[in-house]
Amino acid sequence: MVTVHDVARAAGVSISTVSRALASPERVAAETRDRVTRIATELGYRPNHAASGLRMGRTHAVGLLVPDLENPYFATVTKAVQARARAEGYEVFVADSDEDADVEAELIGALAARTDGVLVASPRSGEAELRAALVGVTAVLASRELPATGSGEPEVPYVCVNDADGVAQALGHLSALGHRTVGVAAGPVSSWSGVRRVAGLITAADQRDVKLVELGTFQPYFAGGVQAADHALASGVTAVVAFNDLMALGILDRLRHRGVDVPGEMSVVGFDDVQLATLVSPALTTVHAPLARLGRRAVDLLLVRLRGGTATSAQLPVELTIRGSTGPVPAGPVN
């Protein structure tokens, strides 16, 4: 096995210079850094992160907390986080809260004790509870915002998608198709993104001749969509905007079982654009969220913090993807 001693001897530098060139390249002269990197590659040297971590008090691992790994949204984010972290020499420990806000603080603490920093995706905890859980933790949020407060608590860096613009695009599309009464199948009240999406729909409806009918709050699963579909049919709406794609798929399935043609009698729009959205018939019209990009950006922000820099929060753009589940408003009432 090639060791750091071998690289140092071949490059004509000290062991500490090799370590700095590979771990903190900005601290080494460009010529020396390039020579060390080239020789390390030629010799096939691979740093022992576990050993260096013990010496420096670093683990070269990051934690990721998600509310539901079975949800394809978080599966996509997790894969992107793992790929980006691995490319930067970090391992990823993943924890799943199972949509339970009460266990998030415990899981954040467990991850923080074993890693250099923690990514917290779509936490369900309230603001005060989340702030308390993140005290002393180098963290970045995904799909959640904790702004600076007047009492001096700093902003926790975050990356999210533009929820308000996404639902505005969806409602604009339905309005252009002639829909004037649109149902809103909202997600859990603990979902920060869900609250933003409902608020965005209300604002967009005020700007158009569209009446919103709030069908209720539902679990962000297929079964939640099944339940929402019955509410939609009872309410007399001609279209439904769902909190996420899983709910929208549940709505499509329930409407099919009840003999309601989509989009002939009811239009359905989701949010996220997970892979399943293209595997149903009709294919789901949905707001495309750049989930892989979100995961990669979250890792980048966390690494900036771990390297002593200032991480700048980001909001990523979204785009409506029109498929077969939306169409012109039906001529008569939906049975």
SS-based class: alpha/beta
* Mean pLDDT over all positions: 92
What is the straight-line distance between the termini?
72 Å
Count helical runs: 12
**Major sheet: arrangement of strands:** 2-1-3-4-5-11
SSE string:
HHHHEHEHEHEEHEHEHEHEEHEE
Biggest sheet overview:
6 strands, parallel
Tell me how many strands there are: 12
Radius of gyration: 24 Å
Low-pLDDT residue intervals, each spanning 5 or more residues: none
Helix content: 40-55%
Give the amount of beta strand, in percent.
15-25%
What's the shape? elongated
GO molecular function, one term: DNA binding
InterPro entries: HTH_LacI, LacI/GalR-like_sensor, Lambda_DNA-bd_dom_sf, Peripla_BP_I
Keywords: DNA-binding, Transcription, Transcription regulation
Protein name: LacI family DNA-binding transcriptional regulator
Protein traits:
elongated; six-stranded parallel beta sheet; alpha/beta; single chain; six-stranded mixed beta sheet; 335 residues; 12 helices
Write the layout of secondary structure elements.
Elements (H helix, E strand, L loop, with lengths): L3 H8 L3 H9 L6 H14 L5 H8 L4 E6 L5 H16 L3 E6 L7 H11 L2 E5 L5 H7 L5 E4 L15 E4 L1 H14 L4 E6 L5 H15 L4 E7 L4 H14 L3 E4 L2 H13 L9 E6 L12 E4 L2 H16 L7 E3 L2 E3 L14
Parallel strand pairs: 1-2, 1-3, 3-4, 4-5, 5-11, 6-7, 6-8, 8-9, 9-10
Antiparallel strand pairs: 10-12
Helix pairs in contact: 1-2, 1-3, 5-12, 6-7, 8-9, 10-11
How would you portray this structure in words?
- This protein is of the alpha/beta class and 335 residues long.
- 43% of the residues lie in helices and 17% in strands.
- It contains twelve helices and twelve strands.
- The strands form two sheets. Strands 2-1-3-4-5-11 form a six-stranded parallel sheet, sandwiched between helices. A six-stranded mixed sheet has the order 7-6-8-9-10-12, with helices on both faces.
- Strand 6, helix 9 and strand 7 (211-217) form a beta-alpha-beta unit.
- Helix 1 (4-11) crosses helix 2 (15-23) and helix 10 crosses helix 11 (245-257).
- It is elongated, with a radius of gyration of 24 Å.
